TrEMBL record:
GO terms for molecular function: ATP binding; ATP hydrolysis activity; transmembrane transporter activity. It comes from Staphylococcus nepalensis. Residues 1-141 form the ABC transporter domain. This is Hemin ABC transporter ATP-binding protein. It is found in: Cell membrane.
Length: 141
C-alpha cells in the first residue's frame, strides 16, 4: 500500500477481515508468515514493534471499546500519553479533536452518558490522537 492510498477489504461474514485487521494493526500475532512495515517485521520472536504500533497506526474497532470508568477526555488523553505526548499536550489534542466532531461539551462525560453515535465519534477520535500514518477501521459504517 502506497502513501495516500485508500484500501477497502471486503468479504463474507466470518471470512477473516477483522482478524486480518487486528494482525495488520499489531494487536494479534499471525499464525504463519510475517507483516513487513517500512522494511522491518511488525513482529519478531524477540519482541513486537509496539512503539510503531502506538505512534503510526490508529485503530477503529467495530464496537467503541471505551473504558467505562474514564471520562471522554481521559479516554483520549491516555492514548496520547501512551504514544509519547505529555499529559498537557494530550489533553489539548483531545479537546481539539472532540471540538472537530462537535463533542467538546462532552469532555467530562462517561461512556454510559453518551449515545451510540457519540461513543463511535469518541472511538474514531481516539484513533486520530497520535496523528497516525495508517488508520485501520473495522466495520466503519
Amino acid at each position: 500500500v502506497k502513501t495516500g492510498e485508500f484500501v477497502i477489504l471486503s468479504g463474507a461474514s466470518g471470512s477473516g477481515k477483522s482478524t486480518l485487521l487486528t494482525i495488520l494493526g499489531g494487536l494479534q500475532d499471525p499464525d504463519t508468515g510475517k507483516i513487513i512495515y517500512n522494511g522491518a517485521p511488525l513482529f519478531s520472536k524477540e519482541k513486537t514493534n509496539s512503539d510503531m504500533r502506538l505512534t503510526e497506526i490508529g485503530f477503529i474497532f467495530q464496537a467503541s471499546h471505551l473504558v467505562p470508568y474514564l471520562s471522554v477526555r481521559d479516554q483520549l488523553t491516555l492514548v496520547g500519553q501512551e504514544a509519547g505526548m505529555s499529559k498537557k499536550d494530550a489533553k489539548a489534542r483531545a479537546e481539539q479533536l472532540l471540538d472537530q466532531v462537535g463533542l467538546k461539551h462532552r469532555l467530562d462525560a462517561y461512556p454510559f452518558m453518551l449515545s451510540g453515535g457519540e461513543k463511535q465519534r469518541v472511538a474514531i477520535m481516539r484513533a486520530f490522537m497520535n496523528n497516525p500514518k495508517i488508520i485501520l477501521a473495522d466495520e466503519p459504517t
